[in-house]
């Protein structure tokens, strides 16, 4: 069976990252006429890198068959029983699968709050992470149906663990801000 495999190899990833940075810079500076300080540009650069990494981890590699794809059951495209795959992963010692899904969206609320220069509520973070993870899983499912091949499995466990990870990221951001605020307050008192 002949197929094409699309992926972000490291060189391609870096080139796409720099193209995105240049496009962002040109659009914000010359089209939108907005100015960003170097710290804000660093946060946005980290966010672009993070989004490209998400695409690499959740969508790619993408296999597209030239002729007839293998005849596989549609049930391989998704998993809708909560904690079934988590349980299987833990029993088989595949902790990377579990912790990777927790860590996947952990940076999202941190980066968004740094870029927006505001603190998000727990509810807003839960909503953003839910939308993000549902978008990822829906894209995986749509790609599987479009290619007639289970490139990535849309999994309810991924949704649960991704949201949990994003909420941990929100909590970490809150703790760091509180610590930073207390240390700044103590430094001003001395």
From TrEMBL:
Residues 47-176 form the VanZ-like domain. The keyword Nucleotide-binding does not apply. Pfam families: VanZ. InterPro entries: Teicoplanin_resist-assoc, VanZ-like. It comes from the Bacteria. Keywords: Membrane, Transmembrane, Transmembrane helix. This is VanZ-like domain-containing protein. It comes from Paenibacillus yonginensis.
